[in-house]
Specification:
CATH superfamily of the largest domain: ANL, N-terminal domain
Number of domains: 3
Number of helices: 12
Pfam family, one: AMP-binding_C
CATH topology of the largest domain: Rossmann fold
Shape: globular
Strand order of the largest sheet: 2-1-10-9-11-12-13-14-15
Protein name: Fatty acid--CoA ligase
Radius of gyration: 23 Å
CATH class of the largest domain: Alpha Beta
Length: 505
Amino acid sequence: MTRSLVASFTARAAAQPGAPALIWEDRPVSYGDLYAMAVRARTQVEEAAPDADRPVGLLVRKSPEAVALVLGCLMAGRSFLLPSHELPEAPLKVLFQQTGCAVVLGLADAPPVDRVVDPAGAMGCEEYPPATAVDDEAVTFMLTTSGSTGLPKVVPLSSGAVGRFTEWAADTFGIATGVAVLNYAPLNFDLCMLDVWTTLAYGGTVVLVDPDRGASAGYLRDLVADHAVSVVQGVPMLFQLLAEATAESGPLDKPEHVIFAGDSMPARVLAGVSTTFSKARWYNNYGCTETNNSFLHEVDQDRPLRTPLPIGRPLAGVRWLIIGQDGRALTGPGQGELLVNTPFQSAGYVNAPNAKTFAPHPDGAPGLVYYRTGDVVTLHEDGALSVIGRTDYLVKVRGFQVSTQSVEQILLDHPAVAEAAVIALPDPVAGHRLHARLRLTDAGSVNSLSLRLHCSERTVRAAIPSVIEMVTDPLPRTSTGKVDRNRIKACVLAAEEERARMPRP
C-alpha cells in the first residue's frame, strides 16, 4: 500500500514542527502550526458533512487556510472537489451537484448545494487524532479540466495515484527538508501536485505566490531570491516575468531546477530563461490533469535550442502509443495522437463518458487502460517526441491539414509577439480561414506584413493567417490560465456579423 500524502505530511509535522511549511506574504507558517490548522479544519469538515460517503466541495482562494482545509479533508478521509473559484456560479453549481457534494466549504457567497459553511468558524479543536486510513483506490482529490470546450470534466485521483506521484516528484527534483519550492499556480491546478503537495509531503517549504500579485515581475523575483527557492515550476508567463525582472537586477543563482509546464515555451522566453537562472537545470514537463506527468525532457543547455521543445522520455512505469490515421500504433517515425498509461492517472471522469477516452488499445499492453490525450505528436528519427497541437485544433485549409496551435507557436517564436491566438473560421471556398489575434511586446514594433513573412519561412502557405489582428490588451484567459480561444472566436464572429449588417457606402 502506497503511503498517503496526508500520512507523509503528518510524519513531517511530527519530526520538524518548527520548520517552515509555507511562506505567505513573507511570513512563515510552521509545520506544527499548519498541522494544527489542518486538524481544526478536519473537525469542521466532519461537523459540516457528517455523511462520510459524500464528497465535500471546496471553493477557496490560495492561502494557508485553504491549504489547511485540503489537508483537513484528507485527514478526515473525504474526497473533495476543488474547482476554480473564478468559474461562474452556474457551472460551479452543476459541478458540485454532479459529484454529489453535500456541502461547500469556502467563500460565503458560494452557490448553494445543501448548505454553505464559511471556514472562518469552528477553529477550537485541541486534540490531534490520526488521519482516517483509506486504501490506495479511494478517491481523494477531484480536480477539473479547463472547460475550454464546455462544462469542465471532473477528474478523480486516488490516494495511491497521488502518493506515487509525490514520491516520484520528490525523488526527481530533490524535494526534501530545507528545500524551498515556488508555487505560482492556483490551488485547483494539477501543477500543485508537485509544488504544494509533494513539498509538504517531503518536508520542504512552499513559497506561495499571492494571486493578486502574480503579474508583478519584481515581486516574483524577490520571492525567489529572498526565500532561496530551489525549484521553480510554471507556465511561460512566469518565466517571462522573471526574465523581465532579472534583466535589471541580475540573474538568480539559487534555483537548481526550473520546470516548464502548461503551454509550449516560445523561443524568446527560453532566451530569457538562459540569462535568468545561472545554475539551474531545465526540464520540459509533459502531462495532463487526467494522467499527471508522463514524459520529462531535460534540456541540454550546451546545444542549440529547438522549439517546440521535445517532451522527452516516459517516466518509469509509463506506457505509451502513437496512433496513426488508420487507428493502429506507429512502429517507427511518424505523426499521430498520443495515448498514455501512467501510475498516477485517473480511472475516468465523474461527469462525462469515458469509453472512448479511457480504454484499452489492441496494440497496447494487455490489461492496460490508456488515456487518449488529444495531443498530436511527431516521433522523430532520433526517437524524440514533439507535440504539434491538439486534435481539437486540426482544421483543413484549402485541402491542407493545419494545426492552429502550431501556427500560434510560429508566431510566438517571433521576438515581438507576447501573446498569440489563432482561430479557424468557416470559409465557403477554403473550408477554413485562419484569424490571428496578437499582443506585441511593444505596440507598433512590427507589422502584419513582416509577421506573414516570418510565417512563410516556417510553414506552408495555407497555414499563414489571412488576418493578423493586433491588440493592446492581454488576451482573455480561461479559469485555468489558458488563452480563451472560444471567447476570441465569438468576438471575431460577432464583429464580422456586425460589419455584414452595416449598409454599404
